Amino acid sequence: MEGNIINIGEVNISSLAKELINKKDIEIATNRIIHRDFGNLCDMECEIQLIDVNYNDRKSMKLFGIYKSSNNHEFYVIVSEDRKNTNVLLCDEYEN
User: Fold this and answer.
1) Inside any domain, residue 28
2) pLDDT digits (tens, 9 = 90+) for 41-72
3) Which end of the chain has fewer CB within 10 Å, C or N?
4) Are 25 and 67 contacting, i.e. CB atoms less than 8 angstroms apart?
5) pTM confidence score
6) 26-37, pLDDT tens digit by residue?
7) Could you tell me the residue range of the domain that residue 23 belongs to?
């Protein structure tokens, strides 16, 4: 991470997300998470993630952002713990 920017590594988009979400919406969402904007997460979840980003050199947790596409599909942007990969998928596709 350089300054206030979060490294998100390689971006992988699920086939369903590619089909239903405009490419520009995905670009906007990934840019938002890079700049520490986690979209529609509740304030408490945002704070927890910011603590991890700001104070934990080990980067111990995945980072989540929830965004809504221009055609009203909710989707996740999930950055891996090591910040080498990011997955974009519809909220309905996510399994813990």
Assistant:
1) yes
2) 999 999 988 888 877 655 678 999 999 999 99
3) C
4) yes
5) 0.88
6) 999 999 999 999
7) 10-93
